[in-house]
Fold these 4 entries.
Entry 1:
Amino acid sequence: MSMTGNHKDTTLTRRRALAVTGGTVVAGGLAVAGYQSAFADTTAADGAGASASAASTATSGSCMTLMTSVTEGPYYLDGALVRKDITEGKKGVPLTLRLTVVDATDGCTPVSGAAVEIWHCDAWGYYSGYTTANPGGSAPAESEDGSTADDSTYLRGYQIANANGVVKFETIFPGWYTPRTCHIHLKVHTGGQKEDGTYEGGKVNYTGQLFFPDDIAEEIFTLEPYSRHSGSYTALDDDMVYDGGGTASGLLTLKAVHKADPSKGYKGSITLGVDPDAENTGAGGGGGGTPPSGAPGDAPTGTPPGDAPSASASS
């Protein structure tokens, strides 16, 4: 199975900076949502299931523990599309994400209308918009046409939370790049609105990363197309951002679609406890401590697209 030439030719027509002011690194929080309630079918079930889950979390008080936001990393691009399926034809093990946004300062009540934005690398460690950056180790080239490679938008997108604070994404299990462990980036926005297919205005309440258990990630990476990227994978305990706090540090709850066949995919869930009045830029170290200043020597290299925002120096 090849990763090249399998995604739709979608381009970023504009990369406008979001209206985020203040620049203060603030707190967000993370707590796990029970798998059964988190993946009860939406439409009718979203009402009772998600409300019950939020009430249960509020009773336990677990989502009231706030966690410092972590770096957004060097591969963020604004202007991502509002869409449930972010794959654009990218090949990999299917991953369904169900994320619930609650107000950790108000009894863990759902934050209706919150915009959850995620982005992550493909099976070989490449990010759309930065596909000339070397993911480390040995990996096939992301695209044979280098002149347009950085115009792609795969594995990036927004979803707007429903009345129960729930968003759902269809994507693939991320690959890895040196020197990071397998992860997904995310931001929670409030106060803006959908416009021209993306999300505009408002403020960022939380910037974080989601992580995967080592045993599951390492099993996935033996499968095609992941196995075509060889090199030294960074385990959770050795990651510069993950701080070992489990769910409170962004570790996803995963369940295999088919226990005997991991290639069939996984379902992942977590509850994001945020402060809707807080605001941050995504520039903080947080979580696992402050990443080293400057890009590490074995970090991905390459030049971001000319019209992209300047990248963070940390990974």
Note: The first strand starts at residue 27 and ends at 31.
Entry 2:
Amino acid sequence: MSTPKPVVVYGASGYTGRLICEYLREYNVPFVAAGRDKARLQDALDRIPGLDTVDHEIVEVSHDVEALTELFRDAQVVCNTVGPFSEHGHEVVEACVRTGTHYLDTTGEQDWLISAEERYGAQMAEKGLLLSPGIAQMYTTGEIAANLCLETPGLDTLDILVFWKGYPTVASTKTILVNAALSSAYHLEQNEYRPWPADGGVQDVTVPGHHETGLALPWGGTSHPVWFKRDPRVANVKAVGGVFDRGLMQAVPQIVAAALEQVKDLPEAEKLKVLAEQAAAVRDEMPPRENQRINTSLDSVHASGPLGRAHCVIHGTCNYKQTGLMQAYAAYSLLQQPPKRVGFASGCQAFGHRELLGVLRSFGLVSNPVLTVHG
């Protein structure tokens, strides 16, 4: 089942996986669309206009290390969208270690990022391979904004906000519930992880460009505290996010609380089964394809230090398209040259924040950042 094609999109039948395939077509990169159900894969790819213009194939594969190792044997990059990653990610990375394949994924699950670095970071670095979870709009676009702020020396504290207008996918809904039930959420305080309150509710936040305030949640803490814990410029990081739909934000804590109540006394395997059922009850079908005039995104970062301040806002559109594009670009870049950092690294650490910004700008998915610096 080995393939001569350089990129494998694992989980290509999902919403984000399909978009990665679309943008790989834009870069004319041959790829394998892989997953556990060939019929679903075929149906998803049949919906991509013009896909016949790029060399690709569809492969059904079981989710175990041996089968994935065989699939990845001749590939150079794997784009993994099969989550929750704390539950399903280990087999994929282990296969990448065996085959010498770069690993990318789309999640901000803190427990997965921390575990992935501890278990595989050194092995991947020794082989000159990239291990980069969390290349996605919800994390990377905000990371770009943070790095633009940090170009001003003397700033050590990041206050990060991400907002979007749209709907969660089937996979992200399940990930939210699994994270809430099985893992802690952290922010960074003086380079140490500090837990968010387990019973913390929505927070009122100021949304740049809007008169109305918004509601936000820590969303499991996101990947930012993990990435910036290894940045000598940064000591403190808090990241929160939300959707512009205030009613939906008010309902999220209730949905999560009800799910947690159902699984609180169950063994872990049974918890996962019940949480999957709960997630399906919330979202059991793909959301509508994004509309560039409707599905907007906003990333805002306040960076501060003892004697300075900077604020960066990036207005964008179609957060899932941003994710698909950055995944495809990262794979395309890795086929041309080594990353800026091997082993465990964020999108900006591996490819450069200005390079990734340029990619998003060139495809018309974000506006020019608004950067204000004081002090």
Note: The mean pLDDT is 90.
Entry 3:
Amino acid sequence: MRTYPKLAAALVSAGALLAVTGCGAADMTKQASPYANAGGAKTVTLSVQSWVGAQANVAVAAYLLEHELGYRVDTVQVDEVPAWDALSQGRVDAILEDWGHPDQEQRYVKDKKTIAPGGDLGVTGHIGWYVPTYFAKEHPDVTDWRNLNKYAGQMRTPESGGKGQLLDGSPSYVTNDKALVTNLDLDYQVVFSGSEAAQITQIKQFAKERKPFLTYWYTPQWLFQKVPMTEVKLPAYKEGCDADPEKVACAYPHTPLQKYLNADFAKSGGGAATLLKNFHWTTEDQNEVALLIADQKLSPEKAAEKWVKAHGPTWEKWLGK
């Protein structure tokens, strides 16, 4: 997401992916991967973010690196800003889904030149506020932010302190939501669920009971296939309208998601670097793998294997052969 989380990191074994636990851990910039820079090892270290779409990218890239090119792949779960620091220092080789970090891009790509652009992922990300489609059909005006206060009472929960609840994800994320609630004079309270997984559980429970809810959510995301949701129109996004975090009163932008590689790895990473630069798929591709992981409970490797077997013409081009 286009978020700026607190420092948190966890090492995971080669090829494995872990869900976010919310527990604090050491700064990744002070830790080395157990395989990074190992003498003579044909190894790639990938940063994996906590949401399942990003895990889908890494799962497929790791599967191809291992099974088609013979690399050993290490994955490191680390939040977004520290991941840039780790990438700059060569502790990870690539980030496969970045939602926009202009400060880090300026520092590491343009000034220090320790990170190289890895190209467009092929997926456009967007954060927004959503209500369940079943509620939007009954109350079409709820999709205009100016009418949200009319429904605040129906969105109230025990956690929202007498106001309507705006459900957010991890408390370690910094979004624009609190500023938006204040600056748009909305009778809502931001309530953090704790993680993407916890937020999904809460959304599914609301949907099962056909209750109204308002939630921070994002596309692409597989959950829309299980719980149809309709976006609430916030004041239109304009370049720079979110420059001051305290004064934000506009919608989130649509962000073409980008990949970034350690600059040395981009030059000398051989077939691995070529594959990661060429990795380019659609929202539908990502959601297909994410759904297998999060909803059908396949391991990331099994989900990747299933997608790879069905989509040869897509990934064969990435190998650069």
Note: The first strand starts at residue 9 and ends at 11.
Entry 4:
Amino acid sequence: MRRISRITVAGAATASLALALAACGGTSTSSSSSESKGDKGLAIAYDVGGKGDQSFNDAAYAGLEQAKKEYKYETADIEPTDGETDADKQQRLESLAKQGYNPIVGVGYAYAAAVKGAAEKFPDVTFGIVDDSTIEAENVADLVFSEEQGSYLAGVAAAKSTKSNVVGFIGGVDNPLIHKFQAGFEQGVKDTNPKAKVLSQYLTQTAEEGGFSSPDKGKTAAEGQIENKADVVYAAAGLSGQGVIEAAAANKVWAIGVDSDQYQQEALAKYKDSILTSAMKDVAKAVYNLAKSVEDGKPETGIVRGDLKTGEVSLSDSNPKFADDTELQEAISTAKDKIISGDIKVKSS
């Protein structure tokens, strides 16, 4: 059952608030019969790259769509704007809260300060933040993942698939979150094939420089690694990863996708035969589960972690060449079991 405070807050939504929301970034909404009750549901605010990144943000949108379909309520999803500040992000979240949306999810660690501030002002609204575990509040769920575990399996796949004994890792932004992807991948490669060399690099030092939103940067980096004999390239770089996949396809080497099953992404269809697998984290499930917890009257709070054991971290098997490789699948299955049992402890930095 949804909370009374949500209904009264929703009644405060006005045209002026809608205008304020639009000023903070592009938005799309979808309404249903529940709107007549003044009862709005899940809203998400996208990270850098926005909807259409075929990766992280699109996974969050899939969770929103699932909740909308099941609960028949109004939802909102809002794009970021260039050069925005923490204050801009907080204003965006507060505008959503004033309009009656609940829960509200900031997609990405960049929303940490904004979620903390908005949650303090709206204690009756449940907030979620993806990829940040620093906020301690009774109405905030920190939706985090053991990315290093999925990346370890990606490393196993790369090590078993390389013919040159050179593989590559490309991170979008040089920060602790992406270090987890790098650390797990490198460990998985080395544990599987000690002779293999890993070429690792980052596109930018900050997100503002376009590390997560520049396919051209990803393509250039991948081309450089391929020139240095890398025949499997793994990118944890958001929208920039599309450029990595394009370069891999052009040079007839393997790419490993990230966050979503990129083999299945329509925008990448012409490159899919070059996408060996994707190291997925189920942002969609995390976002949906938060919405469900609010609907059930027991909102999630604190750190909510997805990993190999919960099934929210995994490797995709959509590519038949990957799925039908018995030796490769056995190696991945063995590694997965050992990670879950604790026999393999995956580094996160």
Note: The radius of gyration is 20 Å.
